[in-house]
Every structure is written in C-alpha cells, then in structure tokens.
Amino acid sequence: MFTPRTTARTVGILLLAAFVLYGVGNSLATTSSGIPSTVGLVMMLLNSAAVIAIGVLMLPILRPHAPAIAIGYLATRIFEGTFLAVGTIALILGAASTNVVAYNIAMAGLGIGSLFFCFALYRFGIAPRFLAIWGFVGYASFAAGSLLELVGVAGAGLVSAIPGGLFEIAFGIWLIVRGFGATAQVAAAGRA
Question: With contact defined as beta carbons under 8 Å apart, do 15 and 29 qualify?
Fold first, then answer.
C-alpha cells in the first residue's frame, strides 16, 4: 500500500519520465530515414504505460475529495495512453501521419480532462494554488492548440504545449520534493 508521500514521489517521477520517454522516443522513432527505431518505439509504449499509471496512482488521492473527477482523470489518462499507443502502432505500420493525428487527439483529451484535475488540485489544496492555476492555463492551452492542429492550423499544438509541458515538469519536481498538500494527507489518514 502506497502512502501519500510515496504516491506523490512516484507520480512526480512518472510525470518526468513520461516527458522524456515520449520526447526522446518520438524523436528516435520518427527519424529522417523513415525506419522507426525500435528503442524509440519501446520508449513511446513505455510512455503510454507511464501516463496510465499516473491516473491509477492519482485515483486514491483524488477520490476522497472528488470521486467523479478521480474517475474522470483516470479515464483521461487511459484515453491519452491508448491514443499514444495507437500512434506508436501507426509508426510501426509506416503511417507517420496517423501518429501525428493520434498524438493530437491524445493531447486534446489530456488537456480537456486535466482541467477538472487542476480544479480539484486547487479546490481541495492537493497542490499549491499557483501550480493548480498554472496547470489549468497550461492544459487549456494544450487542448486548444491540439484541437487547432486537428483542424489544420500547423504549429499550433507545439506552441500551445509549452505552458502545459512546463507545468508537468514543475508539478513533477514539486511532488518529488514536497509531496501533496495537507488535505491529501488527511484524506489518506482517514482511509487508514
């Protein structure tokens, strides 16, 4: 059984790992040679597992405060991980354009679903309010940019990913160093 502190550290590590796994993995898998790197593809699939694990680990932290948001966030992470895996399979099959579409669908879903997550972080003091607000703005930007990419506005997704990506890095580091807010600790103690 994970304590809230262990869960916070694990989620923080997974947030940072997912950032590296997908970024490096996608770069390796989409080389100019046209032949996807096996290492890159494996890293992309590991990213899918990491993002789903984040949703699973956050479920018991969020559930005492906002059960519907907890389930919704888990569903968001499963949605993201599934579409990123579909993109990876598309690369294996030689359909690089399908990978780009799957990525943008995954990021739009992550952005929209994570708005509720950030609301819960803010409302229940699970994370500092400045981080929750930053996450809300970052994920809203992420969702908007990804949706714009899906309708043909080239480059919108990349630019809009910056605030959300920086939030995930900052939040991951915060969780590793500081953990969850006091309300998550109290809720966990009440369950014990």
Answer: no
3 state SS for 82-135: HHHHHHHHHHHCCCHHHHHHHHHHHHHHHHHHHHHHHHHHHHCCCCCHHHHHHH
In terms of pTM, does the model score above 0.85?
A: yes
Joined together, the tokens standing for residue 41 give 């593809």
Alpha helices (H) along 34-95:
38-62, 67-92
Q: Please state the domain count of the chain.
A: 1
- pLDDT digits 0-9 by tens, 110-124: 999 999 999 999 999
Please state the rounded mean pLDDT for residues 38-49: 96
What is the total residue count of the chain?
A: 192
Structure tokens at 147: 């949706």
Residue span of the structural domain in which 24 resides:
4-191
